Amino acid sequence: MKLYSFFRGVLQSGIEMIADQKFGPVIYLGEEGRGRRYEKISLARREPAVLKDGRIYEAHPLRITVGKAENEKSFFVLARPRNPQDPRALVRVCTCACYTRHSHGYWEAVKGNPITIVAAHGAHGDAGRLGTWDDGLVLMTPGDVLKVQPEGGYKTRPYAIIMDLQKGLSICPFADYEMADGARQAYGNGISGLKKS
User: For the chain, which residues make up each domain, given as ranges?
Assistant: First the structure.
C-alpha cells in the first residue's frame, strides 16, 4: 500500500525515516518525556520495505507479537508490500502545528472506518500540561474520511483527509468537505432546491 504524511496542512507522498542506533531507520512518532509518548516503527527483518532518499513510499504494516500471554507485547514493522494493487493507504498524521496554551491536536473518523494502528503524542510544558498534539499511523480504506484538528485552537483550522478509490488520497479544509458532502447528500436524496411549477 502507498504511504503518505500529513503535517501542517500539507499532504506528501511517503513517510520520512530517521536513523536510530538500535533499530536502524525508523519512523519516530511523538516525543520522549513526561506527559508525552513516543513510538518507533522500524523496517521488517525479512523482506523489509524499500527506503528511498530517507523516505518510505510503499509498505505493508506487520504486527509482531512477543512474550507469553500474561506479558505479551506487540509492535508494528514495515515490510515489502504483499499486494501492489492494495487500494488502502497508510498515513502518518501529525497534529503538531503552533503552540497555543491548552489546545489539543487530534484526529477522528468522520466516515468509514479509518484505523489508528500506532499512536503517540507530544506536548508543551515540563509536565506536558500546557497543550498536546497527537501523532500516529492511520490505515485508510476507500470511503474513509478523517477529520484532523491541528493544535493551536483559534489559530488553526481543521482538515479532511479523504480516501477515494478513483482519486486516491486527498485533503481539503474540513468546512469545504462538509459543504460538498451536504450537497452530495441533498442531490443524492433528490433535493435540488428548485421547485417545479
Answer: 2-188
